[in-house]
Amino acid sequence: MFDYPVTVTWKRGKDEIFTDKKYNREHMWEFDSGNRVPASPSHHIVPLPHSNPDNIDPEQAFVAALSSCHMLFFLDLASSAGFVVDSYEDEALGILSRVGRNVYAMSKVTLKPKCTYSGPKIPTRKELEQLHHKSHEMCYIANSVKTEIVTEIIS
To answer: 105 to each of 11, 59, 102, 147, how far by Cα in Å?
Structure first.
């Protein structure tokens, strides 16, 4: 078992009443490495000026975590299979949908991995499908959620 500590901090502004719901929701994520990431609710959900579209929102982080986890397993499996991956790009897309009365969930995440390869052994479409399927099965984040996750292989 492993622990993954994250500290999330927020502080009410000096002149903010708070109970009027007109407070700034910008906050900070700090990781055990010392990295700090400015965060905010999505400006699609919490209007400006109470959110900041320049900051990362939890929904984006969720999609990024799924994409990153999938990619890391894919790279490991491709390496073990003898494929040389030169680049990997995923323009992943998360869909936030209403799933009940006033209840929303990240209902679907589509991964769109596009890779370039070199060397004597280039994967076939079938081999890519198998690698991505296995990557999905192994991904810790994918195994932790009930969101539908689809992989559309670009290369």
So the answer is: 26, 10, 10, 8
The domain made up of 58-151 has a fold known as GMP Synthetase; Chain A, domain 3 (3.30.300)
Structure tokens of 70? Answer: 């999938």
What is the enclosing helix (H) or strand (E) of 113? strand 113-118
Whether the pTM exceeds 0.70: the reply is yes
* 119: nearest Cα among 82, 154, 155: 82
> Is 98's pLDDT higher than 80?
yes
Mean local confidence (pLDDT), 13-24: 95
Instruction: Look at residue 43 and tell me whether its pLDDT is greater than 80.
Output: yes
Cα separation, 138 vs 131, whole angstroms: 10
Judged against a pLDDT cut of 90, whether residue 114 lies above it is answered with yes
Domain ranges of the chain: 1-55, 58-151
Is residue 83 within 8 Å of residue 75, measured between CB atoms? no
Sign for the CA dihedral angle at 153, 77, 107, 61 comes to negative
